[in-house]
Design brief:
Blueprint: H1 6-11, H2 42-64, H3 73-101, H4 107-112, H5 132-153, H6 159-187, H7 191-204, H8 216-223, H9 234-247, H10 309-324, H11 338-346, H12 348-352
Helix pairs in contact: 2-3, 2-8, 3-6, 5-6, 5-7, 5-9
Amino acid sequence: MSFDDAYEALTDHADDSRWAYGTGFADPLAGVDTAVPDGADRAELAAYCLMLGDDALIMSHRLQQWVTRLPELEDELAIANIALDLLGQARLLFARAAEVEGAGRDEDAYAFLRAEGEFRNVRLTERADADFAHLVARLLAFATWRLALLDRLTASADPVLAAVAAKGVKEVTYHRDYAAQWVVRLGDGTGLSHERMQAATDAVTPLLAELFVPHETELRLVRAGVAVDPAATREEFDDVWARVLAAATLRPFPPAASAGEAPAEAGPEAGPAGGLEAGADGGLDGGLGAGPARGLDGGLGAGPAGGLGAGLGAGLGAGLGAGADAGAGGRHGVHTAAMAEILAELQGVARSVPGGVW
């Protein structure tokens, strides 16, 4: 449907494809076969789409909370765009879930009308960020993991998931590289920025183990050629994480990691307390954008060859497994206390005015 001006488009309630609320002018799923692949259970495919969509939705919401609170205007734009990228991914995945589930729900119902226990996002996405260093540390961890997962998902037997993943790889490559540059800048910057960047990566560490623990639904879909086993992303994640932290002069694990201690949750009002100085010489020459989708370029080549190595791998496997209780995490609907605060804000309007339009 065409309109004479943008205002007419904004106020038309009969057209569900209002361009102003879309994820872009090009449909990444145009011409893609939407049939459910042979050997894939419809309910399980829908559940898997919700897992990936929930990761993107909750991470996007946390990033949106930082808009107008970031240290520089350039970072306002960067974080806002990263949040929008993830929101767009969530919408595509929710739309696919709705299509294969066939229960009459749409993307809004998934986002706004589910209870906390029905969400299947990993708990890393829920954590509040105490300052900008915590934000970029968490974003680095999430984007590094999601990029490795999406890159493998481009070979999915489900053409829709493969197309969504192909679009997401381009977006999440930037997300990871943006976060990596800030981690290096702050870690190898001033004494204060190094201290706060180290505290931020230490706080993220206990949340990492859950990322690599497959849900039983994922494993069944892996056998059908549809999904990716998150455990398969572990080696790539370890390598990138170690190289970035080495370039940032940061230790990869806190002293308490071996005891399985989880970090304290940042409060909902936590923000960029005083900001962080980047340090004039702390940047990465040439950035990371030139690197391939699944690896960082030579700018981080100074990191230890072979990734984290035996000692660090044990730190993730043993130390984090106990603290994070990865076997009953977000994929099973078990969330942190922060999730209730997120949903109260995210779902407030939709629940107060059911079916409302504007």
